Amino acid sequence: MYGLLIESIMDYIRKRFGDEAWESIRQKAGIPHTCFSTHETYSEQLIPKIADSASQVIGLPEDELMDAFGVAFVSFVGQYGYDSILKVLGRHMRDFLNGLDNLHEYLRFSYPKLRPPSFFVENENKNGLTLHYRSRRKGFVHYVKGQIRRVGELFYSTKVDIFVVGQHFNKDDNTTHVTFRLLLTTWPSKTPGKLTRTVWWTTSHLVDLSGVLVHKLQELVKGVYLLLSSSKASH
């Protein structure tokens, strides 16, 4: 795997748990590298080793950490400009998932040794879809779940609930096949027209309110004036 993935994990651990925690995890995992090169390849077992060591050092479940690593990766790649690529894969979350294999083919120009997973979408309906994930890597199910959820939140204003409904290892091609069921909930957003109307009505209400206040203030001043006038007349 390329160093970009490991860089994102190192960045996440250092920011959330501190440099000392990362150093302890690195040493416990037996990783000789103190830094990683984005375009250099490393052992496929490196991330599972980091997750296992981090679980022991930090005290969080390994699956939870892998999920967090996946979430962090989506935000991390923004500094390399890859977020702009993710944004144009489609108008909806379904479009993004259907275009993932094409995205990986595009990335081969920058990462020629890339061994990407494969994604296939089926059984789409208004509530969600079924996503098939195939990869030669083992132990990345929660990592992928974190990535997908974060993409939905960040780029499509969509809450993604992910459930594993099937998983098996194929000895013939040495791949893991996982079947996910995704429930998609798009957060409501105001259109510019509605937003404008809301602001207009709010402004109108403020104007009306200020008019009432001015009228009441005028009545109060008038009352005080009459009171003072009658007081002077009595003297």
Automatic annotation (TrEMBL):
This is Heme NO-binding domain-containing protein. It comes from the Eukaryota. GO terms for biological process: nitric oxide-cGMP-mediated signaling; response to oxygen levels. It holds the Pfam family HNOB. One of its GO terms (cellular component) is guanylate cyclase complex, soluble. InterPro entries: H-NOX_domain_sf, Heme_NO-bd, NO_sig/Golgi_transp_ligand-bd. One of its GO terms (molecular function) is heme binding. Residues 2-162 form the Heme NO-binding domain. It comes from Pomacea canaliculata. Signal peptide: none annotated. Transmembrane segments: none annotated.
